[in-house]
Amino acid sequence: MELDHLLGLLDSEDEVSAACRQAVLYGRRWRVHSTPVPASELVWIYTIREAQLREAATATLGFTAAIESLRSLGSKAVCLGYAVSADDPPYHFQLFIDEDLTAVVACLGVGPENH
Q1: So where are the chain's domains?
Q2: At what angle do helices 63-73 and 39-55 cross, to 10 degrees?
Q3: What is this structure's pTM?
């Protein structure tokens, strides 16, 4: 996926997508895997991850909404985008893009771990 295409997919109206877009725009590294995964397989993984992050008091952005978006897709496939990190705010973003790479279906951010 080309940079301009990804930037076009990130909705600047949504807080999480806008923050992710800024991270990509300012040269943070990112990657989109082209191998699709059924959204239903990701729901339980991210539900567990959200519980772990909550227990660790780690800040998140859009996590619950992302899980609900994935749940609503059922077995439809999504591609994962990852390693989009930003310094301000200090978040790592995870993207879920439809199988055709035409829309971001969910985006979440994970803040720095609290020690």
Answers
A1: 3-110
A2: 160
A3: 0.86
